[in-house]
Specification:
Layout (H helix, E strand, L loop, with lengths): L1 H12 L4 H8 L3 H11 E2 L24 E2 L1 H13 L13 H9 L4 H11 L10 H9 L6 H5 L20 H4 L26 E8 L6 E7 L5 E5 L6 H12 L9 E4 L8 H8 L3 E3 L9 H10 L15 H12 L11 H13 L1
Parallel strand pairs: 3-6, 6-7
Antiparallel strand pairs: 1-2, 3-4, 4-5
Length: about 350
Amino acid sequence: MVEDRIRIEALWLAGVGIPAIAVAIGRHRSTVWRELERNRTGWRSGRNPLGATWDRSGRLGLYRCGYLAGRAQQKADRRARRPRRPRLAVGAPARPLVVRMLARRWSPQQIAAWLRRAHPDRPELQVSHETIYQALYVQSRGNLRVELGLQRALRSGRTHRRARTRAAGPVRSRRPWTLGQWHISNRPAEAADRAVPGHWEGDLLIGARGASAIITLVERSTRYALLGALPDGRTSAQVIPVLAALIGRLPDQLRRSLTWDCGAEMSRHAAFRVAAECPVYFCDPHAPWQRGSNENTNRLLRDYFPRSATNFNKISQADLDGVANELNTRPRHTLNWQTPAEALNTLLVATTG
């Protein structure tokens, strides 16, 4: 920035205007204007501080002021040294709230949005997501990482895309229960635009070494999640009763359809349709984007249940309900920072009112 100030001084003394200076130093014209306004010097008898005559005497305002790079740099250094207490320093009022939400696996952006909604009249409790990131990764900004006892960045932890096998494509395409009237192309059109609640997406979340699994369901409009334990296994005969009981918790208006992968665990889906009074539609093979909300929910669940170290047989239904509650009370950007629970309640009130 010292070099930029020296160039600004030379161009300014030569009578170059602000837009041209901005182009010359590769900055926005507003940046140059603020620099000159913040660090300007006065004129003396129509001459600038270095003695050169100002040859544009007809120009007013900022153009009649002088600018010295050395003096500007001194002012900038003094401003940079002024004491600033970090917004998330130890003892700051917002720090306990941020720590609590981070411990619940909220993202910094979700926390910042929730603080603005929950405390609109208390600016001391509002911080930006960048402030939270700084407190997590820069020691001098508060060092939240030590207090939390963890260091995480992206939830997936990956830096490269992972190749996926295509070997199962021909096998899955021959599964008869995924064809005909139960193909996703026959799903009601109202499910596509997410305007009507009650259309769900589901799949199994698999544990370590493929030895255990749970059911995951997510409602398309509100991203409300339900989880179901499978202590006896994940064959179709074992999945269907648990799935029917899980979706049976819902009122009739929230059981419009279920979209599922084409896995063998749903080969007896006719029994589920009768028990839950809810039709099932199946995606194309290797088309996870057709149930994208469920894929996203499963990715969030991996924060709680890493595939390499999770045995779902040791996790009770009560534990799963607790995790689902955490997801359902976490604000979402796609819901305009409402929680799934709030969004679902709003839709239910609207449909029954």
